[in-house]
Design a protein that fits this description.
The structure holds two protein chains of two kinds. Helices cover 41% and strands 19% of the residues of chain A. In chain A, helix 6 links the parallel strand 6 and strand 7. Chain A contains eleven helices and 14 strands. Chain A folds into two domains: 128 residues, 3-Layer(aba) Sandwich (Rossmann fold), CATH 3.40.50.2300; 176 residues, 3-Layer(aba) Sandwich (Rossmann fold). The radius of gyration of chain A is 21 Å and the shape is globular. In chain B, strand 2 and strand 3 form a beta hairpin. Chain B starts with a strand and ends in a 6-residue tail after the last strand. The chains are: A alpha/beta, B mainly alpha. The interface between A and B is large, with 45 and 43 residues.
C-alpha cells in the first residue's frame, strides 16, 4: 500500500517536474515485443516512433525497449518508463494488456496507449487496425492469380484478429474464383523464421501456389522464391525486397499518423481515452505497391476494391454470408458489426478446416 | 613459452574468485562493446549495475530483482543437485510450464470461491505437476537407459504445445472476448502468490530462500547429499559404497522437477498473473547458467540468481535510458558466462611461464 502511494507521489512529483521543465519536451515511450529489426510488426511501430521524432523534432524525446517478454517483465519496463517521466507510453503487443492496465492505475497522470487490446481506463486508450480490409484485397488478387486453386495460409494464433483475416481473404478469393480451396497451417508464433519457412514449404508441397502469411518474418517469401511459381504478400511491412516476385503486394501497418496525432494531443492537453480501429480509409492500413507480375486488369480490380473499402462504400464483411456450419450470419446487404468482428471465433461457410482448440 | 599444468587439486581460492574476476572482465569487455556502439561505457556500466541497486528509483527495482531472481534460484537449486551427481535435467523449462498449468488449473477450477485452502492446494499441484513431468525422463532412464538430456529437453516442446492448447482451450478466460489466455489470478484473492503486491514480495521468494537452506543442509549434513557429491566426483567409488543409482536419479530429477514446477506456479499466480501462450520466457534455461555461475553451491546460486536478475533489469534500464539495443545486452550477458567458463580453466590448471630452453 505504502509503496503504491510512494509510486504515485513520485509520479505526481515527476509529472509536475516534467510539466515545469518540459513545457519544451514531451517524453514518449514505446515497448516492443520483438527486435526493431524484425522487418515486420515491431519494425513498423518503430517507423511510427521515428515519424513522431521527425514531426516534432526537439519538442519530443522518445525512448524504446525492444524484445520485452509479455507478463512481469513488461510490467516492469512500463513502470520504469513511467517512473522516469514519460508522458505517453505506447505498448505495442496484445500480451501487454494487463500489465499496461496495472501500471496505469499507479500513474494516473501518464497516458497509455495499448495496441490490439480491449481494456481501457481513464488514462488508457486502445488502438488497432482493420487489417482484414487489406486481407480482402489480398484475397481478391490471390483468387484471380492462382492456377492450382489452392491457397496456403500461414496463421499465427487462433485469435479473432487472425480468424478475421482468414475469413476476409477467403470471402474475396471465393468471390472471384469459386473453385479455390484454403489450406491453413497454424505456426503458433508471430515471429520464427524457421517455423514459418517450414509451414510455407509444407503448403507448397500440398499444391498451394499462393501463400498468405499472418506471421512477421520474410522466411515464407524466401521459401516461395526458392520454390518458384508461387506468389506471396508482404505482412506488416512492405517486404519489397521480394518484389516483383514472389511478393506481389503487401499489407503495411502504418502507425505514424496515429502516433503523431496522439503525441500532439498530449502536448496540447487534449488527450482523452479512446478506442480506435482504423482501416485503409484513415491510412492505418496500407496496401503495398502491386507489382507488375499481376496482370493489369487484376491490379485495376484490386485497386478499385481498395478504394471502395477506403471510402466506406463497401464493407469487407457484407452479406449474404453463412457461418461454417451453414447457419446464417449476415443477410443480403447486411454488414458485420464491430462487436462480432472483434470477438470473431468462427469460420465462414466454405472453409474446410477447423479452428484449433 | 606459456604452458598449462594441471593442478593436483582444484584451487579453492580461485574457484571462489573466478566469478568476481569474470564480472570485472565482462565490465571491461562490455564497456569496449558499448564504446563501439557509441555510448559512454561508464554510464552504461553504472546504469546496469548501479541504478537498480542504488539509483534514484531503486526503491522500485530492488524488489523487482527478487521477482526476477526467485524463479531462477528456485529452479537452479533443483538443477544443481542433479548436476553435482552427473544427472542432467535440461528440461526445467517444461517442468516450469507444467507446474504453472497444474497450479493455475487447480486455482481456476475453484474460481470464484474464496478459501484459504486454495493457494496451498495450488502449491501442491504445481510441485506435483513439475515432479510428474520430470519423472518421465527419470523413469525412461531408469527402465530403458534413455538419455535424460534429450528426453527432458524434448519434453519442453511438448509442454509448450500443451501450454498453447490450454491457453486457447480449457483454461481460456470465458470473459476474454475470444482472446487466448486464462483469467488473471491477480484478480482472484485466494489464488495469488503475493505476500505484498505493492512491495513486490511473493511466496516464490520465500520458497527460494527455503530451498537454498534445505539444499545447503542436504549437501553438507545429510548422507543423501554426500552420496550425490560422491556419485558426481567418483562414480565407481559411489557404486562400491552402495549408492543406489536408480534412487539417486529419481530423487534428483524429481526434486528439480518439483522445484521448477513451484517456480512456474509462483510466477503464474503472481508476477505473470495468467496462463498465456507466451507464458514461459526461458527461466528454465537461464537457470542452467545460474546453477553453473553459482558453482552448484546453494549460496553461490542465490548470489548468481541475483546477479543475473541485475543484468536483466539493468539491461532494460540501459535500453530505455541510453538507447542500447537489446542484442547488446544479450551479448553482455553472454560475455559473463563465457569469461566465467574460460576462467574455470584456472581453477583446474596452473599457467606456467616456462623458462625452459627448446631442447
Amino acid at each position: 500500500m505504502k509503496l503504491t502511494k510512494l509510486l504515485t507521489t513520485a509520479a505526481v512529483a515527476l509529472g509536475l517536474a516534467t510539466t515545469a521543465m518540459a513545457s519544451e519536451k514531451t517524453k514518449v515511450g514505446f515497448v516492443y515485443v520483438g527486435p526493431v529489426g524484425d522487418g515486420g510488426w515491431t519494425y513498423e511501430h518503430d517507423q511510427g516512433r521515428k515519424a513522431v521524432v521527425a514531426e516534432f523534432g526537439d519538442e519530443v524525446e522518445t525512448t524504446y525497449v525492444e524484445s520485452v517478454p509479455e507478463g512481469a517483465d513488461a510490467e516492469r519496463v512500463i513502470t520504469q518508463m513511467a517512473l522516469q517521466g514519460a508522458d505517453l507510453i505506447f505498448t505495442t503487443s496484445f500480451g501487454y494488456m494487463d500489465p499496461t492496465i496495472n501500471v496505469a492505475k499507479k500513474f494516473p497522470d501518464v497516458k497509455f496507449e495499448h495496441a490490439t487490446g480491449y481494456k481501457t481506463a481513464d488514462n488508457v486508450s486502445v488502438y488497432s487496425a482493420r487489417f482484414y480490409e487489406g486481407r480482402a484485397v489480398q484475397g481478391h488478387i490471390a483468387g484471380r492469380m492462382t492456377k492450382s486453386n489452392v491457397i496456403g495460409y500461414i496463421a499465427s494464433f487462433p485469435i479473432p484478429e487472425v480468424i478475421r483475416g482468414i475469413n476476409s481473404a477467403y470471402i474475396h478469393a471465393k468471390k472471384v474464383n469459386p473453385d479455390i480451396q484454403f489450406k491453413i497451417i497454424w505456426a503458433y508464433t508471430w515471429f520464427d523464421p524457421a517455423k514459418e519457412a517450414d509451414a510455407a514449404k509444407a503448403l507448397i508441397e500440398q499444391g498451394a501456389d499462393v501463400i498468405l502469411q499472418h506471421t512477421d518474418s520474410t522466411a515464407p517469401q524466401a521459401a516461395a522464391q526458392a520454390a518458384g511459381n508461387v506468389i506471396t504478400f508482404g505482412q506488416a511491412s512492405d517486404m519489397s525486397e521480394y518484389a516483383p516476385l514472389p511478393r506481389v503486394s503487401s499489407i503495411i501497418d502504418n502507425w505514424a499518423p496515429y502516433y503523431i496525432a496522439r503525441t500532439k494531443a498530449v502536448m496540447d492537453g487534449t488527450w482523452e481515452s479512446t478506442s480506435t480501429w482504423d482501416g485503409i480509409g484513415a491510412g492505418m492500413v496500407g496496401i503495398g505497391e502491386i507489382s507488375d507480375a499481376v496482370p493489369a486488369d487484376v491490379k485495376a480490380e484490386a485497386l478499385a476494391l481498395k478504394d471502395s473499402l477506403a471510402s466506406g462504400e463497401y464493407h469487407a464483411f457484407t452479406g449474404p454470408l453463412n457461418k461454417q456450419d451453414g447457419s446464417p450470419w449476415l443477410a443480403e446487404g447486411e454488414t458485420a458489426d464491430d462487436g462480432t468482428l472483434a470477438g470473431m471465433n468462427f469460420y465462414v461457410e466454405g472453409i474446410e478446416a477447423e479452428i484449433p482448440n | 613459452m606459456i604452458s598449462l599444468e594441471k593442478r593436483p587439486m582444484p584451487s579453492r581460492t580461485l574457484s571462489m574468485a573466478t566469478p568476481i574476476i569474470a564480472v570485472i572482465i565482462t565490465m571491461i569487455a562490455g564497456g569496449l562493446l558499448f564504446v563501439v556502439l557509441g555510448k559512454n561505457p561508464f554510464e552504461a556500466i553504472r546504469t546496469i549495475f548501479w541504478d537498480p541497486l542504488l539509483g534514484e528509483y531503486a526503491f522500485y527495482y530492488r524488489p523487482q530483482l527478487l521477482v526476477k531472481a526467485a524463479p531462477l534460484v528456485l529452479i537452479a537449486i533443483g538443477l544443481s543437485l542433479g548436476f553435482k551427481a552427473g544427472i542432467w535435467n535440461i528440461g526445467a523449462e517444461g517442468q516450469y510450464i507444467i507446474g504453472a498449468l497444474c497450479g493455475a488449473g487447480v486455482g481456476l477450477a475453484f474460481y470464484p470461491t474464496e478459501s484459504i485452502l486454495i493457494f496451498p492446494a495450488m502449491i501442491l499441484a504445481g510441485a506435483l505437476g513439475g515432479w510428474a513431468w520430470a519423472m518421465i525422463p527419470a523413469l525412461l532412464k531408469v527402465k530403458f537407459g534413455t538419455n535424460e538430456i534429450l528426453v527432458s529437453l524434448m519434453l519442453v516442446y511438448v509442454a509448450e504445445q500443451l501450454l498453447a492448447s490450454m491457453s486457447l482451450g480449457l483454461l481460456k478466460n470465458p470473459e476474454g472476448m475470444g482472446f487466448p489466455g486464462s483469467r488473471n489470478l491477480n484478480d482472484y484473492p485466494s489464488a495469488n502468490s503475493w505476500i505484498n503486491e505493492a512491495a513486490g514480495l511473493h511466496w516464490g521468494m520465500a520458497f527460494a530462500f527455503i530451498a537454498v537452506i534445505f539444499a545447503y543442509v542436504l549437501l553438507n549434513r545429510h548422507i543423501l547429499g554426500f552420496n550425490i557429491r560422491l556419485t558426481g566426483e567418483a562414480p565407481r567409488a559411489a557404486r562400491f559404497s552402495g549408492v543406489n543409482p536408480t534412487r539417486l536419479i529419481l530423487f534428483c530429477l524429481g526434486t528439480s522437477g518439483a522445484l521448477a514446477g513451484l517456480a512456474g506456479l509462483f510466477e503464474v499466480s503472481g508476477p505473470s498473473g495468467q496462463v498465456s501462450i507466451d507464458f514461459n520466457i526461458g527461466y528454465g534455461f537461464t537457470a542452467i547458467i545460474v546453477a553453473f555461475l553459482g558453482r552448484l553451491h546453494p549460496v553461490g546460486i542465490l548470489l548468481a540468481g541475483l546477479l543475473m536478475a541485475l543484468t536483466y533489469i539493468g539491461g532494460e534500464i540501459a535500453q530505455g535510458n541510453l538507447g542500447l539495443p537489446s542484442a547488446a545486452i544479450q551479448v553482455f550477458q553472454g560475455m559473463l558466462l563465457f569469461f566465467l567458463l574460460a576462467l574455470d580453466l584456472l581453477t583446474n590448471f596452473r599457467i606456467r611461464f616456462a623458462a625452459r630452453g627448446t631442447a
